[in-house]
Amino acid sequence: MKKIVSYIANFIAIVMGISAFVLGFMAYFVKSINNTSGIFYDGFGRQLYEAPTLLQIILPIEPMWAGFVWFILDLIVFFGLLVSAYYLFGVMDENHDEK
To answer: Per-domain residue ranges for the chain?
Structure first.
């Protein structure tokens, strides 16, 4: 039974890790433009604005971003999913080794 739970947990951890990278890709690399208004949007449909010059100098971010709150939320979701997946792998590996 522990082996089945371990496989399920590892599968969930893999899905979480892949989801983190897909969400990050959609948020920062997928961009579209409305041809009539000239407004840029990211992969989630959030309107993009020009990033402040100081942040462009300090952080290696794109010149277009959805805003500071979305930037922080994206970081929390991305690293939260990665840490959760890593923790899930670690806990299941410890439980699997004990038998």
So the answer is: 2-98
